[in-house]
Amino acid sequence: QKEVEQNSGPLSVPEGAIASLNCTYSDRGSQSFFWYRQYSGKSPELIMSIYSNGDKEDGRFTAQLNKASQYVSLLIRDSQPSDSATYLCAVRSGGGGADGLTFGKGTHLIIQP
Amino acid sequence: DAGITQSPRHKVTETGTPVTLRCHQTENHRYMYWYRQDPGHGLRLIHYSYGVKDTDKGEVSDGYSVSRSKTEDFLLTLESATSSQTSVYFCAISERGGFTEAFFGQGTRLTVV
């Protein structure tokens, strides 16, 4: 059973601060990792993908991957009220991965103005 | 936005009736997925397709069937709807499955009364 765990929150962060979102996964063979943002009543929107150990930066977002610890994180710098949403961690296992992504239940992030 | 259209966007149906949801893509992506999203469970994979007429079961496939007769269309059928199938259904597409991102449609809110 592949599992992806996230703290459900809510995680409350002041505007302008760094928001740190964490995710652990159970399948050591996982090869691809994704962060999605989902506003209430909307569909998931891809923010970041990461495939190798280390950091990957895109604008205000940084994804961090540590396969040895089976840990993925997302940092949001200079947090804005528009960043308030649920953030979903998704993992794709090895072996081609045609069978889709396994999602965590999401972390609800609130940016306080 | 990825060219994914789900129809209908909202539907209310009675227990025991058949229901078909449609996902249409204009991206010519090989892989298509159906997920359901429920409070407390997150996104869970129902069925997926890795090509025309090539489909397989996901985590929560009981009570659902799918068909893909053309690259652009992936249909999800509830043969006899039950109240436990009240959910938000998302279609997703992926270009190369294993190591590429998945993009989501707008979702279909289905209520079974």
List the helices and strands and how they pair.
The complex is a heterodimer of chains A (113) and B (113).
Chain A: E1 4-5, E2 11-14, E3 19-25, E4 30-38, E5 45-50, E6 54-58, E7 61-66, E8 71-76, E9 85-93, E10 102-103, E11 107-112
Chain B: E1 4-7, E2 10-13, E3 19-25, E4 31-38, E5 42-51, E6 54-57, E7 64-70, E8 73-78, E9 87-94, E10 102-104, E11 108-112
Parallel strand pairs in B: 2-11
Antiparallel strand pairs in B: 1-3, 3-8, 4-5, 4-9, 5-6, 7-8, 9-10, 9-11
Structure description:
The complex is a heterodimer of chains A (113) and B (113). Chain A is 0% helix and 55% strand. Chain A contains no helices and eleven strands. Chain A has strands at residues 4-5, 11-14, 19-25, 30-38, 45-50, 54-58, 61-66, 71-76, 85-93, 102-103, 107-112. In chain A, strands 2, 4, 5, 9, 10 and 11 form a six-stranded mixed sheet that branches. Chain A is globular and about 40 Å long. Chain B is mainly β and 113 residues long. In chain B, strands 2, 4, 5, 6, 9, 10 and 11 form a seven-stranded mixed sheet that branches. In chain B, strands 1-3-8-7 form a four-stranded antiparallel sheet, with no helix packed on it. The mean pLDDT of chain B is 94. The A-B interface holds A 31-32, 34, 36, 42-46, 49, 51, 88, 90, 92, 94-106 and B 31, 33, 35, 40-45, 48, 50, 56, 58, 90, 92, 97-107.
